[in-house]
Design a protein that fits this description.
Elements lengths: L1 E6 L4 E10 L2 E11 L9 H22 L9 E7 L3 H18 L3 E5 H12 L7 E5 L4 E7 L2 E7 L5 H11 L7 H9 L10 E3 L2 E3 L1 H12 L4 H27 L3 E5 L6 H14 L2 E3 L3 H4 L3 H13 L27
Parallel strand pairs: 1-4, 4-5, 6-11, 11-12
Antiparallel strand pairs: 1-2, 2-3, 6-7, 7-8, 9-10
Helix pairs in contact: 1-2, 3-10, 4-6, 5-7, 6-7, 7-8
Bound molecules: adenosine-5'-triphosphate and fe (ii) ion.
Adenosine-5'-triphosphate binds next to helix 4 and helix 5.
């Protein structure tokens, strides 16, 4: 079965084409185009306009790149939520149009669940992981329990990527600032004390953000601040992930989301996993960031297990929570 997936929850529009091959996900194509605001943060309407402008060409490009014809597509899948309303609506509209034009079924999927399933889809040994999902808007620790993916820990305020991007914006780094902070952190030498906020299995970053900004205003070394930010917030999410693994008695950890491209974060989580005798999985970065292939793969899993949707069922849901999905495709 060949499935095309449309991702459009936030600043990226992604079109992926996948094929199910012996129970694993074979990615045939995965094209992504990202909206970058000239100044300031993301404006939802502008991001949505960006997606509307590029989506048709990106669909054609992704289908060509997959070396298939439109007639080979068996299923259309799209990100139904959570995300920014205007962006979600444009992606859903494109998916409906494609489904009706090709006369093929349509499935709307949960974006966060897709981040987890793509890891299980590309690694045969990744069967029942705890997912550490760290992106711009999201920071969640997710695992399967009693028929659903449940959020065991999450940020109480901003996502970890947004924390890094906001700090970067205030100190004059380009968007996205995560990679720039990673480079600066490599030159950091001195650890500066920052708030380390964990409540149960939840975390918060706003104290760390404002203290880092105060250090910058006091003209402390930017390299040391970046180093200290990374050490603190990555240690906190690694700790929460370890607690979730202990609590659920799972021995696999999987990374997802754009912040997973950070080498220091990968090293911390890998070390934690090795110390527990657990397996560590990090998909290639094009499958960690928001992308169409993960949406296509989850669409396939749902369709294959019997889920069917009419056009009237494809209304977007900005607050589509991870644990609202009945995970009928798993035992
Ligand atoms: P969501 O999945 O929540 O909709 P998003 O659209 O922001 O969020 P991604 O594309 O998964 O998601 O991730 C982008 C985020 O990843 C940005 O905040 C960016 O700064 C961060 N990021 C990218 N590379 C790195 C890096 N090397 N180190 C730290 N953060 C990084
Ligand atoms: Fe995401």
């Amino acid at each position: 079965m060949i499935c095309i997936g449309i991702e459009g929850t936030a600043h990226s529009i992604g079109i992926g084409v996948i094929r199910n091959k012996s129970g694993l996900c074979n990615v045939l194509s995965n094209k992504i185009k990202t909206y970058k605001p000239e100044t300031g943060g993301i404006h939802p309407r502008e991001a949505a306009n960006h997606h509307a402008k590029y989506i048709a060409d990106l669909i054609k490009e992704s289908v060509e790149n997959a070396k298939i014809d439109f007639s080979d597509i068996d299923l259309v899948s799209f990100s139904q939520g959570p995300g920014l309303g205007p962006c979600l609506r444009n992606a859903a509209t494109a998916a409906r149009a494609l489904s009706l034009t090709l006369n093929k079924p349509i499935i709307g999927v949960n974006h966060c669940v897709a981040h987890l399933e793509i890891g299980r889809g590309v690694f045969r040994d990744c069967k029942d992981p705890v997912l550490l999902y760290t992106s711009g808007a999201n920071t969640q620790v997710i695992a399967f329990a009693e028929g659903k993916y449940r959020v065991f820990g999450e940020t109480l305020d901003i996502g970890i990527g947004n924390c890094l991007d906001k700090f970067g914006r205030n100190v004059g780094l380009d968007f996205p600032s995560g990679p720039k902070i990673e480079n600066l952190a490599k030159k950091g030498r001195k650890y500066l004390d920052l708030p380390y906020t964990i409540k149960g299995m939840d975390i918060a970053f706003s104290g760390l953000l404002s203290t880092s900004e105060q250090y910058y205003n006091k003209k402390l070394s930017l390299e040391d601040i970046c180093f200290s930010m990374q050490e603190t917030c990555f240690a906190a999410i690694t700790e929460v992930t370890e607690r979730a693994m202990a609590h659920t008695e799972k021995d696999e950890v999987l990374l997802g989301g754009g912040v997973a491209s950070n080498k220091r974060l990968c090293d911390m989580v890998r070390t934690m996993a090795e110390d527990r005798g657990a397996s560590f999985f990090a998909p290639s970065i094009d499958l960690c960031i928001d992308n169409g292939a993960m949406i296509a793969w989850l669409g396939f899993l749902m369709y294959d297990s019997g889920v069917r949707m009419d056009i009237k069922d494809t209304v977007i849901d900005q607050r589509f929570r991870t644990d609202m999905v009945d995970v009928i495709w798993r035992d």
